[in-house]
Design a protein that fits this description.
Elements: H1 3-21, H2 23-34, H3 50-69, H4 74-78, H5 80-83, H6 93-107, H7 109-112, E1 137-144, H8 149-160, E2 165-171, E3 176-181, H9 188-197, E4 201-208
Helix pairs in contact: 1-3, 1-6, 2-8, 3-6
């Protein structure tokens, strides 16, 4: 097998590893864009393996670039079959560069995944409430399945669509979401059902004020 073919296969393997590494955050966005409820947390179990997959991706792409850029041996230079034909686009440095750029975008996907969620119709944390604060309830729900900022945005988006929600703040590192709502317009069980339908799971009501 030629060096070019090895490089192409290695580049594809590196890209695949990068996509798998970010599946836990790509899935919630795909769920939102495709309108498919209940799959947002499908790959949350992969989060512990993400660091290893990142290292694997970097290792594969690093090896591929080394293979592509290293000086050719005398045997390779003397091989007429490699000298007499121009490498295809799929075996070129340009293609490897595109693969590398896309892989990097996949690896850092969690840092910008929140951009896919529209704030339109969502309650703002800076919203001024009615002066009669007794009409507003606050709950803190423990949620299983959140792995990144994209998961936070997904939950905030879905809960924010409910009529009566005043504010919602999900924190994946704490595994919880704080929701303020009007009890005259919305029941707590409806909020829990909305979260569970996304694929994340409400474990318990940690605090009710």
């Amino acid at each position: 097998m030629s060096t070019s073919n090895i490089s192409s296969k290695s580049a594809s393997a590196g890209l695949f590893a990068a996509i798998v590494a970010s599946l836990c955050c790509i899935t919630p966005v795909f769920s939102l864009l495709a309108g498919i409820g209940g799959i947002a947390a499908t790959f949350s179990w992969m989060e512990p393996f993400r660091p290893y997959l990142i290292v694997l991706t970097i290792g594969i792409l690093g090896f591929t670039w080394y293979q592509k850029l290293k000086p050719r041996t005398a045997e390779e230079v003397a091989c007429a079959c490699d000298e007499n034909q121009k490498p295809s686009f799929w075996q070129s440095k340009k293609f490897l560069g595109l693969i590398t750029a896309f892989a990097v975008l996949m690896l850092v996907f969690p840092s910008y995944s929140h951009m896919f969620y529209s704030n339109e119709g969502n309650p703002s944390t800076s919203l001024v409430f009615e002066q009669d604060t007794t009409k507003t309830n606050k709950i803190i729900l423990e949620i299983k399945g959140m792995t990144c900022a994209g998961c936070e945005s997904h939950i905030e988006h879905e809960v924010g669509l409910l009529k009566g929600v005043k504010s919602v703040d999900a924190i994946y590192s704490a595994g919880s979401a704080t929701i303020e709502y009007s009890p005259t317009e919305l029941e707590e069980k409806v909020i829990i059902e909305a979260i569970n339908k996304t694929g994340y799971t409400v474990i318990l009501n940690a605090k009710d004020q």
